[in-house]
Amino acid sequence: MALDELKSALPDYAKDLRLNLGSVIGNSGLPAQQLWGTVLACAIASRSARVLRELEPEAKANLSAEAYTAAKSAAAIMAMNNVFYRTRHLLSDPEYGTLRAGLRMNVIGNPGVEKVDFELWSLAVSAVNGCGQCLDSHEQVLRTAGVDRETIQEAFKIAAVIQAVGTTLDAEAVLA
């Protein structure tokens, strides 16, 4: 199992990550599609080839073709949106917020899966990419749709752990 490979690759100083990785994936209360879509989208967003290589096959095996594509789409569109909206938010000039974005985001309106799942994946990727405006936006959509805080937190816990695992393994590869 790829998850075991990742856990065993983590150095002893990162044993908490090893335990957390097993917990957030192995003991998640999320339905399989939400879990594995979050895992895949966050593995892509982590920018760690090792993490993506290890987690993608299991995600693909646990997702329909539509959900697999939608999770990749969430990672792709949020890679763009997180940079754009984070930058607009961080600039001192509020006038940028009044300008039309002019970026195509059609997949958000028609992701090919339940809107809640796509929003959850988008929120998790936004956590990895650190975009507060996108986090607020996706959290609001999820809460309006009746998703509880525990489910939302589960998604960003997965994001946090996958990002940390990728950072640690990539650093170890350079330091070795």
TrEMBL record:
<comment type="function">
    <text>Antioxidant protein with alkyl hydroperoxidase activity. Required for the reduction of the AhpC active site cysteine residues and for the regeneration of the AhpC enzyme activity.</text>
</comment>
<keyword id="KW-1015">Disulfide bond</keyword>
<dbReference type="GO" id="GO:0051920">
    <property type="term" value="F:peroxiredoxin activity"/>
</dbReference>
<dbReference type="GO" id="GO:0045454">
    <property type="term" value="P:cell redox homeostasis"/>
</dbReference>
<dbReference type="InterPro" id="IPR029032">
    <property type="entry name" value="AhpD-like"/>
</dbReference>
<keyword id="KW-0049">Antioxidant</keyword>
<feature type="disulfide bond">
    <location>
        <begin position="131"/>
        <end position="134"/>
    </location>
</feature>
<feature type="active site" description="Proton donor">
    <location>
        <position position="131"/>
    </location>
</feature>
<dbReference type="InterPro" id="IPR004674">
    <property type="entry name" value="AhpD"/>
</dbReference>
<protein>
    <recommendedName>
        <fullName>Alkyl hydroperoxide reductase AhpD</fullName>
        <ecNumber>1.11.1.28</ecNumber>
    </recommendedName>
</protein>
<dbReference type="Pfam" id="PF02627">
    <property type="entry name" value="CMD"/>
</dbReference>
<dbReference type="InterPro" id="IPR003779">
    <property type="entry name" value="CMD-like"/>
</dbReference>
<keyword id="KW-0575">Peroxidase</keyword>
<comment type="subunit">
    <text>Homotrimer.</text>
</comment>
<keyword id="KW-0676">Redox-active center</keyword>
<feature type="active site" description="Cysteine sulfenic acid (-SOH) intermediate">
    <location>
        <position position="134"/>
    </location>
</feature>
<comment type="similarity">
    <text>Belongs to the AhpD family.</text>
</comment>
<keyword id="KW-0560">Oxidoreductase</keyword>
<dbReference type="GO" id="GO:0015036">
    <property type="term" value="F:disulfide oxidoreductase activity"/>
</dbReference>
<dbReference type="GO" id="GO:0006979">
    <property type="term" value="P:response to oxidative stress"/>
</dbReference>
<dbReference type="GO" id="GO:0032843">
    <property type="term" value="F:hydroperoxide reductase activity"/>
</dbReference>
<dbReference type="InterPro" id="IPR004675">
    <property type="entry name" value="AhpD_core"/>
</dbReference>
<feature type="domain" description="Carboxymuconolactone decarboxylase-like">
    <location>
        <begin position="94"/>
        <end position="175"/>
    </location>
</feature>
